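Milestone 3.1: sequence recovery, worked example.
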C-alpha cells in the first residue's frame, strides 16, 4: 500500500471536511425534528446520517493530524464523497420524500459541498509526497 506524507492542501481539505461534516452531523442530531419539519427529510434519515457524519469527522481529524496516510484511504474518502453526492442526486430524482424548497436546497448544497471536498482531497493527495520504504521503517521504529 502506498503511503504518503500529506501535503498542506490535503491536511487543510481533510480538516475542513471534518469541521463541516462534524457541524452538520451535530446539527442533524440536535435538531432532527425541526430540520425534518422544515426540509421534508425524514427524521430517521437525519439521525442516521448525523451519526455517520460525526464518526466520519473524527476519522478525518485523525487523518488531518497524521504525518503519513495511506493513499488508498484518501482515495476511498474521495470516492465516498462522490458517492454521497450521487446519493443526493438520486434522492432528489426519486421524489420519495415531500421535500420543501429548503429541503431541495439543503440536498443540492450538500452534493456540491462533498464534490468540492472530493476535488480538494484528490488534489491534495496528488501533491502529497510518497514515503519511501526506509522512511516508513524509520517512522515505524520511532513510533
Amino acid at each position: 500500500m502506498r503511503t504518503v506524507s500529506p501535503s498542506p492542501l490535503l491536511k487543510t481539505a481533510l480538516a475542513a471536511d471534518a469541521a463541516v461534516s462534524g457541524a452538520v452531523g451535530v446539527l442533524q442530531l440536535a435538531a432532527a425534528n425541526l430540520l425534518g419539519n422544515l426540509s421534508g427529510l425524514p427524521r430517521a434519515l437525519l439521525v442516521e446520517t448525523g451519526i455517520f457524519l460525526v464518526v466520519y469527522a473524527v476519522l478525518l481529524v485523525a487523518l488531518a493530524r497524521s504525518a503519513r496516510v495511506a493513499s488508498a484511504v484518501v482515495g476511498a474518502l474521495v470516492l465516498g464523497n462522490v458517492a454521497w453526492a450521487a446519493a443526493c442526486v438520486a434522492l432528489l430524482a426519486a421524489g420519495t420524500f415531500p421535500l420543501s424548497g429548503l429541503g431541495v436546497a439543503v440536498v443540492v448544497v450538500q452534493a456540491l459541498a462533498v464534490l468540492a471536498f472530493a476535488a480538494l482531497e484528490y488534489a491534495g493527495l496528488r501533491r502529497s509526497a510518497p514515503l519511501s520504504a526506509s522512511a516508513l521503517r524509520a517512522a515505524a521504529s520511532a513510533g
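The longest helix spans residues 101-126. The CA atoms of residues 10 and 125 lie 6 Å apart.
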